[in-house]
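Attaching the record inline, Q. Sequence:
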Amino acid sequence: MAPQQDKTSTEASTAVTLTINDHTYTVGPEVPSGTRLVDFLRHKIQLVGTKTLCREGGCGLCTVVATVPDHETPGRTKTISVQACQALLYSCHGWSISTIEHLGSRYDGYHQLQKALHGFYGTQCGYCSPGMIMTMYGQMSTSGTLTAAQVEKSLDGNICRCTGYRPILDAFKSLAVDGDPALKERLTDIEEAYKDGCHKTGECKGKCGRKQPGGMCTRSSKLATRPSLVPVLNGPFLTVDSVRWYHPVTLQGIYNALQTLGRNEKFRLVVGNTGQGVFKNDGPYTAYIATSGIKELYTVNNQSPLELGANVSLTRAIEVFQHLATSDPGYLYLKTLADHWQVVANVSVRNAGCWAGNLMMKHTHPGFQSDIFLTLLAADAELTIGNSSDASITHVNLEQFLKTDMSRKVILSISLPPATANTKLRTFKITPRAVNAHAYVNACFKMELNAGDGFKVLTKPTLLLGGINPQFIHAAKTENFLLNKKVSDVKTLLDAAKIMEREIIPDSHPQDASPEYRKSLAVSLFYKTVVGFLGEKVSPRFQSAGPNIVRPLSSGRQSFDMNQETWPVGEPVPKLESAIQISGEAAYLDDIPYHPNELHGAFVHTTVANAKLKSVDTTEAMKVAGVVTFVNASDIPGTNSFVVNAGPFPDPIFVQDRVKYAGQPIGLVVAKDRDTAYHAAKLVIVEYEDVKKPILTIKDALKAGKKHTSMNFITNTREPYTLGNAEEALKTAAHTLTGELSQGSQYHFNMEPHSARVVPTEDGYDVYSTTQWPTETQATTAQVLGIATNSINVSVRRIGGGYGSKISRQHIVSTAAAVAARKVKQPVRVVTDLTTNMTYAGWREPFLSKYEVGFDGNGKIEGAKIELIADTGHVSNESAVSFLFGAVQNAYYIPNLTFTPSMVNTDTAANTYCRTPGHVEAVATIENIMEHIASYLKVDKMQVRLNNMVAPGVPRMFVPPHQKNVVKDEILPLLTTQASIVQRQREVDDFNKNNKWKKRGLSILPMWYGFDYPSMFRYGIQVTIYEHDGTVAISHGGIEMGQGINTKVAQVAAYVLGIPLENIVVKASDTMVGANSMVTGGSFGTDLCAHGVRVACTSLRQRLDVVKEKMKKETGKDPTWLQLVKKCHAEDVDLSQRYWTAGKEHPERYDIWGAAALELEIDVLTGVFVIRRADIIEDSGRSMSPYIDIGQVEGAFIMGIGFYTSEMVKYDPNTGQKLSNGTWEYKPPMALDIPADFRITLLPNAKNPYGVLGSKATGEPPLCLSYAVVTALRQAITAFRQENGDSSWFQMDTPITVEKVHQWCGVNTSQFQLYE
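Structure, as predicted:
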């Protein structure tokens, strides 16, 4: 598929034509029929800057910008962002595509969006960065300019796990016409630094090396004009691998295509293909009919009634709704529809997807919670349907449509009538997070009311609910009851609510919210609607029931010491990799070009959790053209385990006999391309026997006797850790309490999936792996192949996020690829899709805490027994529970403490370390205890915490005495002042007093984090100075995964050697220089590699200084750096230095302190909440790189917010299958979920006599502070409960979803009041 010369299509052809980055491509049957645009970009024409992960339109990585015909305005085009994982290549006929490579690069200069993201430190691992930029470029191209609100709304489909979103938002808002002046001023500074021209010649060739820190060239991007389209007069028809693709340009063309299809043929009408992200298993199809060339289907008739053609996108429909709502009083209700549709999916999906396609999904899948269906039904819309057999037209309403046989029929248009002046419409979509999520319940309530007659219902109202059960649409009995009733009457309201409560019967599925919540929510939404309609007629305190919580535009502040005397250490510089990340030039594993004979693997998984494998039939899979072989346990020449140093117990790569968990790999299909491998893997037939009900939770495991006490690493026995005599202290304490706390799991959500590439070589194998631990990758590969370790070469340039996911779980992929490569004697690449990644590998381990605590009348703890029980999955290799004896004390002193670390085994994937493993759960446990004590004593929670703070010099359980309690003496006073805690607490109290149905909570959480360097964390380091030009290269045994390890080691090297930072590069990590290095994790890798580089550079500096002094004596002046280097080389001075960070030479341990104040607001009636503000003060010592450290604080905190709120994992209780296995069912935070006001302070004047150059680690500790969202939620919920007579303690297991907030408030219909 080479680019073709531009040409005009004047007749039907057997190929499709599209333009990509100004090159025209003609694609024919040589490309498979179901090829997605993203795969064509990445694998056919090697534009790998566009990334991919979810392949369901839910992560935003694959965003590109498309210029397409604007059929409303002949001869014109429109430019939009689309997700390339959803667009089918053959449906892109006539499009012009721009990818990240087209915006700018280090050779051609950068686009202003790229410059902004780079300059605002908006990248970490960088895997999401191209998608972020292209999303914003699409918005700029569509609207011409940006506003701050557009920036926030545009990022509703882009996930970033690293940054916490704040710097990304700031970067793009700096380009907004209404952006914060401070942001715009900062942007001016950035652009000033990157002005055009060369300081040498005045003309930039992109090669001069004039780079800012981070590798950014100074030239501006040449991209300025909108791309042109290939004119298309007649659509092509082609047959690709027996699948037909039609591109009609008239309605009759659609009808003709439909009439050619056999009665039982399965076909798909294609506009945006966005539905495949929801229903991934629809198909396969024998024919596709692309309707994007039919102008009639894009009709917009603004006359009454409003008419929209079937192909009108959701985005365009929203624009039409907004226009008519302000220009025609009869269509005022369309503003409500526009607002609702703006929270359907995300911008790119709404740009590509049409309303008719959404309705067809509802038609095909009645259980689909279609917001489009429900809102159009509420609007009394009428569909026009065309019949291909005779071109006849029929008109049906939305409910009739569901019963209409749509075979060989096509939706042509929809009409929406105006509404009367008395008509009121309210719609709702209650979701697990702010955006890009399907609803727990969606609802539309429409009433024609006479406000002058007690808001009498004049006509039968429309009360529509989705998410109840597939058959439920209308609350019909309630509708009938309300006719001619006055909704201002409290009795009418309560009676209607009770009727609705009785007629709603939700179904029950494990992946859904509970039936109880959905019923209560539906009735609560009805109450919200009535209060909203009545407005100021309702008593002021009850009016808060009506409106939804409105989240303001977000903002952020960052504060840190400059410490200029140590620059470049401490200088706020961009990450070294940032410039190539923003341009898509940073190479990740799957960006490596394919070897000519490279093969691809796809796993076959188990579908039950506890059974014996009876048979595996690969017959049908092996018949698929392109399939080469099937690899399973019998093909392993060595040991069937991907564990060497990662734990004491083996963990099989492939099932051999008994299945350990659902999702466990059975084998690997190897094929000539990835799509074939995945397709064939689905054809493998697996049978099981001796199937047993799985054990999936800690409590189930306890009942089954699966618990065992973990190792006490102090006594080397399986017994509790003890300090003092907890039993005796509990007996004598004035007060005692017992309690429990369950904390769930969390998917790491590394944006780059687990991947591996194994290439046979003359002396063994080259292994490329997305690993945090190359040494273990090397060892496990040698183990499974039964060969010498020195025949395995592992190299890692960077990985797209890790968080612990790629410490050991990744080695399932690399070892399977190695076995396959050995068998076929060819290179094999295995790149997991998101579902595979989420099911075959374990996540953060869940915890159950049990405690008994004794305390005095001031809440001061005298003794406690705490047990933490970790769910390690089917094998206990990677539990953190044994190390939590310090963390469970946090910043407090418990004089008598018994800590019991325990583990249980369940029929789930072996869980693994996840950012701040165990530590965050331990901190949550003691903070929950503090909350419990305060609740019991009815005293201030913060005072209880202060009463228990550890004093200087006091020894604690296996924790050295502290010289100072920094959080008590410095951080909390500073936080109280900076965050205006006293004033804001008064405001919260006043708000709660005056608002029945909205409540706020403000909570402060302190943190102590002991940072001890484990002796086994050792890394190989090499620093080399090149004689030719004096530049420096560093290789170390750590892994760059977004945390900034390479930037920090380069800053240290530049500081010690006394050279500019831009003269230093950091090379890929490998198992030669980094031989035997430990895993990069726990923030140890960054600290110790920086320490190792400092030692190595100091040794080099000492050698160089000897020569320098000699030269100075000879010449009377200091030599330049290059003169010195050349002289040293001439005198045989070794310009390379290796260092091994031996455990005995590690820096001294140190303490990290911090605190967070978090304020939020809940909507009691729905459970929805918004974090209004978060202030964090983090003790980072003398930061080595302030913006990197601030990014670590923000990213960790937001990851913790997700862990404690929206990130719920669910299983099928019968099979054990993980149901939270994609972006449709698993919801990490997005840009609109972060605190609206997000303020970070790195503790000023913080000196660390230990660590590296006075710095402290920041990657892990801040996540512990995210438990503040739980304590703030407790305050808000408690405010409502107390107001209703319930001041009792209640257990708040996490994650705390919207559902739990509502349920813990205890809403019932008797509380639905209108008047005081």
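Residues 1084-1115 form the longest helix (32 residues). The mean pLDDT is 95.

More tomorrow.
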